[in-house]
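Task: encode each sequence below as structure tokens.

Item 1
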Amino acid sequence: MAPVAEPPEVEALRRDYRIAFLRYLPRRKEAALALAYDIGRSAVADGTSLLVLAQVHHEILREVVTDSSPDEADHLIERAGEFFAEVLASVEMIQRSLRGA
């Protein structure tokens, strides 16, 4: 059985998420968090579900943690939570504005 091809939006999400997340990790710069916020907005615009966002986040976090030393893992997980919270913040804001409309 052949693997199911992902929609191009998910492939682009994974690529953009990986790039932005890897930029954020070393210095926790605000510019990388702005990219996280944009990723969330784009996901809403593309109709991407929260489950897909969570899956992409988890996949990329697993890649990064696997490539790190055990001493780095706690810091990486903490930063990953900060980054994912920013992605979800934009989703939450858009959902709230839609409910209020």
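Item 2
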Amino acid sequence: MKPIIALIITGFLAGCTAEPPPRRFAWITGLKPEKTAYYKDLHAKPWPAINRKLKECNIRNYSIHLKEIDGKLYLFSYLEYAGNDWEGDMKKMAADPETQRWWKETDPCQAPLPDAAAQGKIWSDMEEVYYLR
């Protein structure tokens, strides 16, 4: 009987110290057709400092996908945030000179959707409607 109690206590304590699941984010924006090759090339060989900063700011499983719909190009972005201060980490990223230089390359490639443009943003927020764990 004692091994079962020890197993239950161990399982309980492991559950108490487990990290919370990451927060998931997704966005969408347009891509200018004449900038497609350049945008793909940038992301095929991202600058090492950019990947380091993303990881430093607790970004995990980050991906960007491209889709053509009715002759227009769209980018879908997904990431998981594993930190506990989203706003602080995003400010840290935005203040980074190398990230600012990267955005000067990528931003002109993108064509914000109307809702994002109205807010002075590039990417439109997306609502999660389903998640399978």
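Check on item 2: The domain at 21-125 is CATH 3.30.70.100 (Alpha-Beta Plaits). The beta strands are 23-31, 59-69, 72-81, 110-111, 124-125.
End of task.
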